[in-house]
Amino acid sequence: MAPLATATRLCLRSATAATKPAAVRALSSTAACQAGGDASAYSSPFKLKGESKASQVPDFGKYMTKGNETTNKLFSYFMVGTMGAITAAGAKSTVQEFLVNMSASADVLAMAKVEVDLNTIPEGKNVIIKWRGKPVFIRHRTQDEIEQANKVNVASLRDPQTDEDRVKRPEWLVMLGVCTHLGCVPIGEAGDYGGWFCPCHGSHYDISGRIRKGPAPLNLEIPEYDFPEDGKLVIG
Ligand code: FES
């Protein structure tokens, strides 16, 4: 087997040596052709005699730019800049449309505000309304209750807040009916402080909705509201 392998290797080497000059000749003839012929034309070094025109490499010379390098660069920069600006404008309008689609519709916005007729709530009574899916307590406080709320030593409170800071009109207390401990709905006119009592874990709120006893850390939250005219309350 060894003599056969050696013979094969020798054969291959001699074949390679025989083809080398031909390739070198082909390259030299190409260079000569390029140097002597038309600079814009290119003849394939692999063209055979009698070869059809379809297999010839075409001349792209007429597609080459006639302008100088600076003009070409300016054109490229202009094209890149313009395409960038168009892309940015498209992206902006896409994002804008997406945000408009995601924003609240007119019916949802209408629900964002609730109007309450205060003339229907007698003094000393609570009313609970639903606003944005949450209960809102509205209390028409008596003069006694207002005085009681103002008598409290604010410094002794867990979440110190004066009654004045919690109401726009002393007779109307408006607050979210959501316990600040874990979100239960407290019961009105109950508890040790004559305000609200959360039975879930025993939080007591006073007549100003301030936490006085139990695990709740904060006073009942005051929502955004206004009195656009006498006898009318708008929440939201
Ligand atoms: S949720 Fe009200 S006391 Fe816990």
TrEMBL record:
Cofactor, how bound (note): Binds 1 [2Fe-2S] cluster per subunit.
GO molecular function per UniProt: 2 iron, 2 sulfur cluster binding; metal ion binding; quinol-cytochrome-c reductase activity
| Biological-process GO terms, alphabetical | mitochondrial electron transport, ubiquinol to cytochrome c
Compartments where found: Mitochondrion inner membrane
Question: What keywords appear on the UniProt entry?
Answer: 2Fe-2S, Disulfide bond, Electron transport, Iron, Iron-sulfur, Membrane, Metal-binding, Mitochondrion, Mitochondrion inner membrane, Respiratory chain, Transit peptide, Translocase, Transmembrane, Transmembrane helix, Transport
Q: How does it sit in the membrane?
A: Single-pass membrane protein
GO cellular component labels: mitochondrial inner membrane; respiratory chain complex III
Give the Pfam families listed for this entry.
Rieske, UCR_TM
Q: Which cofactor does it need?
A: [2Fe-2S] cluster
Give residue ranges for domain Rieske. Answer: 139-234
* Keyword flag Cytoplasm: no
What does the further note read?
A: The Rieske protein is a high potential 2Fe-2S protein.
Protein name, as recorded: Cytochrome b-c1 complex subunit Rieske, mitochondrial
Provide the species name. Hypocrea jecorina (strain QM6a)
User: What are the leading ranks of the lineage?
Assistant: Eukaryota, Fungi, Dikarya, Ascomycota, Pezizomycotina
